[in-house]
Structures are given as structure tokens and as C-alpha cells.
Specification:
By secondary structure, the chain is of the alpha+beta class. Helix content is about 55%, strand content about 15%. It contains 9 helices and 8 strands. The strands form 2 sheets. A 5-stranded mixed sheet has the order 3-4-5-6-7, with no helix packed on it. A 3-stranded antiparallel sheet has the order 2-1-8. Helix 3 crosses helix 4.
């Protein structure tokens, strides 16, 4: 019988993404396991959580609305007013006029008008976009610099033809564009999430440091990263339902549950600290 040249090493406990998610949402007394995760795993965790949040908040409602209206082609052909840019002229079957007196911004599209000039800009507007049959006028009034006016004539694009049909035929590119926008929103949401973790972690560190001298800002920050999970998911669900009151309630729940989970985790850290000093 051959002698074993080395003892078998105990298998390292596996802690999957699902384990991390469940622990972060429901088991604050075991946050010490989360804090032991490598930086790479924590980054992957944030990527996954914010992907889920963005899918709930933006992608699923948007895709549901698009599908309900017959896809992008159905929206462009049946829900969008008929428009056409051809032979250097622009046509839109409906007049659009949106004026915000508070921010002094307006958008006017009226293709029964031959051409817009600076004199057609409504009074007291800081910014205006006005589209006629033959041109698009962009007006900006900047303090100290006066008014700036740009006019783009459609006759410069007379070789270009754009209609509901031609845009509908490019639906695939529109979906790619929407995917690109989603990725940008996803990354922006991750930045916001990490900044909020900095805020929660900083506040916790300042208030708890006197009670738990061994608490570091790094620990408080990482705790905040995981504690935000369930509150943000619930807030995203309420946002996707489209009810302002419900969304506000979701926002308050997010703050309350994040602080609550952090407090429970910190209390457990204090107990462990006292035991270790024993």
C-alpha cells in the first residue's frame, strides 16, 4: 500500500452569485462572507444586480410597449404621424407645438409654414427648435452673449428621402440603437449605485466609528454595496408600474431597508469584534 505523500486539502466553500444575492437581500448577519469576496467578484455582483435592475426598470416595460404596438414597424406605420423628407421639402401631417414657459423652451413643427426666421421665435424663449417646410431653425439665447441662431435648409438634403416606410425598413438598426442606449443607462446606473454606496458607507462610518473602533471605511462601503440590493430592486419594480405614488413609496422603502440591513450587519460585526477581543 502506497503512502500518501500529501494530505488532501479541504475544499474551499463555494459562494455563487445567487448565494451572494440571497445573503445580501435577506441575511445581513452573514455579510462577513460577502466582505471576504474578491474585488473582481464584487464588481461582477454589481454588474449583475444593475443589469437586473435596468431590465426591470427600463427594458421590460419598453419592450412590452413596443411589442404591444406591433413592434417598431407598427409604431412607425400606425402610431406615428405621416412624415416625409423628400426633394428638399419636409412634410408632417400634424402640427406640433410644445412651449414650456417655466424653462423658456419650445418646440414647434408646422410644415404649412414655408420658412421660419428669427422673428418667428416666441417672445421670452431661451431655447427654441422650429421646423417648417423648408428649414429647421435652432435658437439659443445665452446670458452675456446674445441670441444665437442656426438655420438648416432641407434643400441641402434634396437627394435624401426619409418617410415612415423607409424608417420602418430600418427597424433593425433602431433596435441596435436602443440596445446601445440601454448599455449606456446600465453603466450610468452602476456609477450612481457606487456613489450611493459611498454616501451610505460614509455616513455609517462617521456615526459608528466611535462604537466599533476597528471598523474601516472599506468595510462600511462594501456593506453598503450589498445592503442596497433588495431596496433598489423593489424600487425598480414600483417604477416600472408607472404609478408615481407607488414609486415614491418604493424610494422610501429603498432608503429604509438599506439603512436597516446595514445596521444589522454592523451590529453583527460589533459582536464578532467583541468575541475576537474576548
Amino acid at each position: 500500500m502506497e503512502k500518501e505523500t500529501s494530505a488532501k486539502k479541504p475544499e474551499k466553500e463555494k459562494f455563487t452569485l445567487i448565494d451572494s444575492l440571497i445573503t445580501a437581500m435577506f441575511v445581513p448577519k452573514e455579510y462577513n462572507k460577502l466582505l471576504k469576496l474578491s474585488t473582481g467578484k464584487i464588481i461582477r455582483y454589481v454588474f449583475a444586480v444593475l443589469l437586473l435592475v435596468c431590465l426591470i426598470r427600463y427594458a421590460i416595460p419598453s419592450l412590452g410597449s413596443i411589442a404591444g404596438l406591433g413592434g417598431m414597424e407598427g409604431i412607425l406605420m400606425n402610431e406615428t404621424p405621416t412624415f416625409a423628407l423628400e426633394d428638399g421639402k419636409f412634410y408632417l401631417e400634424e402640427k406640433i407645438e410644445q412651449v414650456d414657459e417655466v424653462s423658456a423652451v419650445c418646440l414647434i413643427i408646422d410644415t404649412t409654414v414655408e420658412e421660419y426666421t428669427k422673428e418667428d421665435v416666441p417672445a421670452n424663449m431661451m431655447q427654441a427648435v422650429m421646423i417648417s417646410q423648408s428649414n429647421m431653425l435652432v435658437y439659443n439665447s445665452l446670458y452675456g452673449l446674445g441670441a444665437m441662431v442656426e438655420s438648416q435648409r432641407f434643400e441641402d438634403w434634396k437627394d435624401l428621402t426619409i418617410t415612415n416606410r423607409t424608417v420602418a425598413d430600418m427597424s433593425g438598426f433602431i433596435y441596435v440603437g436602443l440596445l446601445f442606449v440601454f448599455v449606456i443607462v446600465w453603466f450610468a446606473s452602476m456609477v450612481e449605485y457606487l456613489l450611493m454606496s459611498f454616501f451610505y458607507g460614509g455616513i455609517t462610518y462617521l456615526f459608528v466609528k466611535a462604537v466599533i473602533p476597528n471598523l474601516t471605511f472599506r468595510t462600511a462601503y462594501k456593506t453598503a454595496v450589498f445592503a442596497q440590493t433588495i431596496g433598489l430592486i423593489v424600487e425598480s419594480i414600483t417604477y416600472s408600474l408607472g404609478m408615481e405614488t407607488l414609486y415614491m413609496a418604493g424610494g422610501f422603502f429603498n432608503i429604509f431597508i438599506t439603512v436597516s440591513l446595514m445596521n444589522k450587519a454592523i451590529v453583527k460585526f460589533k459582536i464578532n469584534d467583541e468575541i475576537s477581543r474576548g
